[in-house]
Structure formats: structure tokens, C-alpha cells
Design a protein that fits this description.
This protein is α+β, with helices and mostly antiparallel strands and 94 residues long. It has one domain: YlxR-like (Hypothetical Cytosolic Protein, Chain: A, 2-Layer Sandwich), CATH 3.30.1230. It contains four helices and five strands. The strands form two sheets. The chain has a three-stranded antiparallel sheet. A two-stranded antiparallel sheet has the order 1-2. A hairpin with a 2-residue loop joins strand 3 and strand 4. The longest helix has 10 residues. Bound molecules: zinc ion.
Length: 94
Amino acid sequence: MNAAHQQQHRKRIPIRTCVVCRTKEGKRALFRIVRTEDGVQVDPTGKMNGRGAYLCGDPDCWERAAATDILSKALRTTLTADDRARLRQARPSP
Ligand SMILES: [Zn+2]
């Protein structure tokens, strides 16, 4: 088995898109945000039930997600003040 042959067998990583900047990344490089009965939450496991959207690691995207309706449209919900505060708290550091 040569190197070229092995490369074709790399695992496929699911690609997701940041809803704010539209950057495409492997699922693990993005943060999943999920709409639950208790509001919009950051889903660290990626396994929570509910409609999900993805944000990249750029703090600007988190700020825009908290300040605008981009995320609420993606999740088809309305962000409450608590939801927005939670997003700002979970915002990754640069
Ligand atoms: Zn982004």
C-alpha cells in the first residue's frame, strides 16, 4: 500500500458553516448553538436535541450573534435578553 492510496482513505469530517461569517469548518472547529425549551444554549457536546446552528471561534461572530437577528433567524426563534447574555458569556476569547 503506497502513500497516495492511504490518503484516499482519510475520514470525512462533516463540514458546517458559521451562521455569521459563513466560514466553513469541520464540525469540531465550530461551536454548536441549540434552541431548547430553556432558551438558546451553547451545546458543548454537539448532541443536545433541538434545532442547531454553528458559530466559529471568532469573538466578533459571537458578538454579532448576540446583537443581531442572524442567529435567531437561523434557529427560527427569538433571542431573549437571557439568551443574548448567555452568548456573550460563552464567547470565546480571541
Ligand atoms: Zn464566524
